């Protein structure tokens, strides 16, 4: 008996269509009903129907998007679209996606009979042409579905409900935390001759298979090839701290085994532990940012995001005031001031640095920081266009002229300031995003909840509730977090006294600063600075 699923956001229409099919052709089994494309994909995975009747216009995922997904994941599934709009463009799109036929609302009984007969004939032809999928084909489909869904998790476009689909195909994420690894081949380690005479995809496939084997033995997760140059692993872990130590060990094991077994090297970026599937994209972005530090520290390493952002700056530190002016101008979207401050920063850096490498390394760190800022604001593509940050950093490192360096960095940072200014105009209606930007710019003064609420034109009590709902933290918690992060940066990168840093970051007195800092980091300010200095001394030695 052939089976069919009905997809429409109107319950009355689904029930009516179910009854019509039952009356017109009792041989059809109505396997299930779905309200939109997301529900339909879950039902298809669970029930494996022969055919699908789907509306075009639906919330969350419409019929066109659903057909695109079906075409990739379930190419044998027969699809017929239903449209309540007499617009042939929708029908054309559907037919291009492989739709077998279409019906217009209100559905005529005679038309439905013809469509059902056509579907049964096509199913009969499929049965004759093939006795069914082999085990290998089923594995390939399951791998494709899992990779598609996990890619969605990395991009932030998939939610908790999609984990059920992964579970049905044998991938079970049972722990609350996730972390991402991005593994990239160091091309120079294999030589241009070896790389050019071999299909590059074979290197990626080798890395993916080895990484998956290690993860299967040591952890819980999936590894797959995301692009021509990128292998990604998503690991499901039990907690934020203890499990992350294990993740780093897994990264080191991967790095060593690839070198030992294949005579080539890889560099691995690791994002921090993220809670829940909605935060997976943050860990993935952090892994990519960590990987950018390969330009500074070299390849054949495991680079963990938390370690990278706390790395000490190299000798030849310029006056931090010039950086603060630049940072303020960019965050405020002041293009003119950003251009002036960028040129001044590069000029001071070139005058004080001991080697050209120091200049390039310092600028790479600066640009990586703003790349992270652009990512948080959703402005990366608007800022860099079709170029990725790796290419930008390579271009910067190839410049040996001070004037050219000032010009190129000035253009880059002015463009970012312009993007931020434009974004502030377009997105200014979001009070929480606007308030966070305000806090980041004015953390050094005695900020109050009422002041920030007034700035975004909201009642203080309502703003407090909204802020907690949207960010998961209270206004005071977020303000404290920003102040402590800035204090850590200043202690790592300047020689200012701790009391001065406490005052510069908005703390009322040194006792209050010491107490809050230790609560947030587990170390006193002096212990934190001593630990940073130990790392500097170790690296210098």
- Which assembly state applies to the chains in this document? single chain
State the CATH superfamily name of the largest domain: Reverse transcriptase/Diguanylate cyclase domain
Give the domain tally. 4
Identify the overall geometry. Answer: globular
Low-confidence stretches: 312-321
Can you give the helix content as a percent range?
Answer: 55-70%
Outline of the structure:
It contains 26 helices and eleven strands. With 541 residues, it is an alpha/beta fold.
What does this structure look like?
The chain has helices spanning 11-24, 37-47, 63-73, 88-96, 109-129, 135-155, 161-168, 192-197, 200-218, 242-262, 280-292, 294-297, 305-309, 320-331, 335-352, 356-377, 380-384, 389-397, 402-426, 431-442, 449-455, 460-471, 475-493, 498-504, 510-521, 525-540, and strands at residues 3-7, 29-34, 51-55, 78-83, 101-104, 177-185, 221-227, 230-237, 266-270, 274-275, 302-304. It has 541 residues and is of the alpha/beta class. The protein folds into four domains: 3-132, Response regulator (Rossmann fold, 3-Layer(aba) Sandwich); 139-307, Reverse transcriptase/Diguanylate cyclase domain (Alpha-Beta Plaits, 2-Layer Sandwich); 310-427; 430-541, Arc Repressor Mutant, subunit A, CATH 1.10.10.60. The strands form two sheets. Strands 6, 7, 8, 9, 10 and 11 form a six-stranded mixed β-sheet that branches. It has a five-stranded parallel β-sheet with strand order 2-1-3-4-5, sandwiched between helices. α2 (37-47) packs parallel to α7, α11 (280-292) packs antiparallel against α16 and α14 packs antiparallel against α15 (335-352). The longest helix is centred in the C-terminal third of the chain and has 25 residues, at 402-426.
